[in-house]
Design brief:
The protein has 461 residues and is α/β, with parallel strands linked by helices. The protein folds into three domains: 74 residues, no CATH class; 118 residues, Aspartate Aminotransferase, domain 1 (Alpha-Beta Complex), CATH 3.90.1150; 246 residues, Aspartate Aminotransferase, domain 2, CATH 3.40.640. α11 links the parallel β6 and β7. It is elongated and about 85 Å long. The relative contact order is 0.13. The structure holds pyridoxal-5'-phosphate. Pyridoxal-5'-phosphate binds next to α8 and β7.
């Protein structure tokens, strides 16, 4: 082992070799030096681990190629595009909603130029960033007022801090959810400075449970969308109308953490469990909070819509600035919201909604087309599959789909899936019964050639 370690050359010595000199002129000295350090460190690790590998010929073309690859790798962004072939449309690990071209253009414009972010163009005075989307949100939901913050978690925290600091928030035991990323509603309520009063049981809570718990310290009745699980069987939850009446009678605020929040009815596409924001407000909820990048199909943002007097209080909250939305997200949100209005059809324009509503026959046609393109790169077949909305929607909220199954001889499904993730443009599929499945509901036509490239690269590795 020691002899081998001693045989490892110094970086300085390697830099004099003609093949590496050529790399220095192609890239830069700094990049070649750090790639060489990386390669030598890797060799040292292999030797120390007792894997006496043959040392490479450092003067060879193949060693130079290896250094070249390391440099190309180091130049690549850590955060970069990939292909979501999981069949989960709103995948949190994969960045949730992809944006409509209109939203992307709006971000580019605002990124490249000064804007009227906080300037009122009518009177030349200071304006508010919140004004750019408020009227649109009100128009689309029927709310009196609205404000947007960084994300829905921030929307929930701000709503509670602004209305229930030091006072009681009554919530149902069946709705105190954890939505992932350690966002647990009961903890958020407490961390917002409110006192949580749980009522009812896991499977059953009645309006009378809320009523019995109301006392002079109570500020808020809270409802939340049990986004990511479902209790079935012997269950009940109070009607929104009953809680709204209760809140009104006792001069309390009734708020709902909706999570995925949709602006149009998606029941015709199988999403029967996603209440429309406008309908919830009509049922008498004072304040509703929802995400910008779930089923709404826009950028990361949290929207609070509802009663004007409460929203006015939130707008002057001292911590609002810590939660505020940035100009790029704001631009994308405004552009996305505009796609819900004439002359546009949101189901056509907004990628998330397009994927949710695409007829399964089209998904199947895409699967067959991909299978053709992949011909000869492995054992390829097309089969029905199940896609999901994701993003905290009810997991059973499944959508009919089609997937291309790929098997490469001599490779396990795990090894092949790993190799697909290492491709120049990574492809993320799912493994099912020893095969890698590429679900076509979350893939666009434009991405098909990239999948072919990735499968070709992965099969060679
Ligand atoms: C997703 C979700 C949130 C958090 O939304 P973010 O935009 O990710 O912060 C809050 N509440 C519910 C019910 C959710 O589903």
């Amino acid at each position: 082992m020691n002899t081998q370690l001693r045989q490892l050359p110094q970086v300085e010595a390697l830099l004099g070799l003609p093949a590496l000199q050529a790399l220095i002129s192609e890239f830069s000295r700094d990049e070649v030096v750090s790639a060489l350090r990386g390669a030598l460190a890797e060799l040292r690790r292999t030797i120390v681990a007792g894997d006496p590998a043959d040392l490479p010929d450092f003067a060879s073309h193949s060693f130079a190629t290896q250094i070249c690859d390391l440099i190309a790798n180091a130049r690549r962004s850590n955060l970069r595009p990939l292909i979501n072939a999981t069949g989960i449309i709103i995948h949190t690990n994969l960045g949730r909603a992809r944006l409509a071209p209109e939203a992307i253009r709006a971000m580019q414009e605002v990124a490249a130029h000064p804007t009227n972010l906080e300037l009122n163009l009518h009177n030349g005075k200071r304006g508010s960033r919140y004004d750019h989307v408020e009227a649109l949100i009100c128009d689309l939901t029927g709310a009196q007022a609205a404000i947007v913050v960084n994300n829905c978690a921030a929307a929930v925290a701000l709503s509670l801090m602004g209305t229930a600091m030091g006072r009681k928030v009554i919530a149902s035991r069946g709705e105190l959810v954890e939505i992932g990323g350690s966002f647990r509603l009961p903890d958020v309520i407490v961390q917002s400075g409110a006192i949580l009063k749980e009522v009812g049981a896991t499977n059953k809570t009645r309006a009378s449970d809320y009523a019995d718990a109301i006392d002079e310290d109570t500020a808020v009745l809270m409802k939340s969308h049990t986004s990511n699980f479902k209790i079935i069987g012997f269950t009940s939850a109070p009607e929104r109308r009953d809680l709204a009446k209760l809140a009104q009678d006792h001069d309390l605020i009734f708020m709902e953490d909706l999570g995925s929040g949709v602006l149009i009815n998606l029941a015709p596409y199988g999403l029967t469990d996603e209440p429309v924001v406008g309908d919830i407000l009509k049922e008498g909820v004072d304040l509703v909070m929802f995400s910008g990048d779930k089923l709404l199909g826009g950028p990361q943002a949290g929207i609070i819509a509802g009663r004007a007097d409460i929203i006015a209080g939130l707008k002057s909250h001292p911590l609002l600035r810590a939660l505020r939305i940035d100009k790029l997200s704001l631009a994308a949100l405004e552009a996305t919201l505009r796609l819900y209005r004439a002359p546009y059809d949101p189901l056509e324009r907004i990628p998330v909604l397009k994927m949710v509503s695409e007829p399964v026959a089209q998904v199947k046609a895409r699967a067959l087309a991909l299978a053709d393109l992949l011909e000869g790169l492995g054992a390829i077949s097309v089969a029905p599959s199940v896609a999901y909305v994701g993003g905290g929607s009810w997991p059973q909220q499944d959508l009919q789909s089609y997937a291309v199954a790929v098997e490469v001889s001599g490779m396990t499904a795990e090894a092949f899936a790993n190799a697909l993730r290492s491709a120049a443009v990574p492809v993320i599929g799912r493994i099912h019964q020893g095969q890698v499945l590429l679900d076509m509901r979350t893939v666009t036509d434009a991405e098909m050639p990239l999948i072919v490239d990735a499968v070709r690269q992965a099969g060679r590795s």
